[in-house]
Amino acid sequence: MIWGMQTMLATDVSGIISTDSTWNLAGSPYIVTSSVYYKPGYYTYIEAGVEVKFDDNQIMYVKGTLTASGVTFTSNNAISAPGNWGYIQTGDDTYSGTTNLQTVRSCMPAFLCL
Fold first, then answer.
1. What phi and psi, each to the nearest 5 degrees, are found at residue 25?
2. d(CA 14, CA 25)
3. N or C: which end of the chain has fewer CB within 10 A?
């Protein structure tokens, strides 16, 4: 018996983001394969309906501006569970990152997750 697998296009993201960018439905889902760092002064817009999936223990640092209304942030595992991926951090001691998040699933339990 031969099993077929349906392949889905996805966009891998990782590392430092140092340019303004838009994550759109055509590139969804976006897979955070290694932690992402948004540098101060840069703007990222994630369109409504986009799904952002995180590999195990990966995080997103937002020192710039992230607008993500109507976006789902979740695990990249086939079966997601709390603690699969890290968290989304905004700002630090000297800068206040900006986000507008609606659906966050399966991140570390100490953070806002569903």
1. -60, -30
2. 18
3. N
Which residues, other chains included, contact 87 with Cβ-Cβ below 8 Å and sequence gap of 6+? 59, 60, 107, 108, 110, 111
Tell me if 3 is assigned to some domain: no
The pair of three-digit structure tokens given for residue 78, joined into one six-digit string: 């086939």
The verdict on residue 77 lying in a domain is yes
For 36-72, the pLDDT digits (tens) are 998 888 888 889 899 999 999 898 888 888 888 788 8
Q: Please answer whether residues 11 and 46 qualify as being in contact, where contact means their C-beta atoms are separated by less than 8 angstroms.
A: no
Q: Which domain holds residue 29?
A: 11-104
Of the candidates 96, 78, 99, the residue with the CA atom closest to the CA atom of residue 87: 99
In a domain, 98, yes or no: yes
Among residues 57, 3, 53, the alpha carbon closest in space to that of 32 is found at 53
Nearest to 40 by CA among 61, 21, 60: 61
Total domains present in the chain: 1
What's the pLDDT band for 3 if we cut at 50, 70, 90?
Answer: very low
Q: For 63, which DSSP code?
A: S
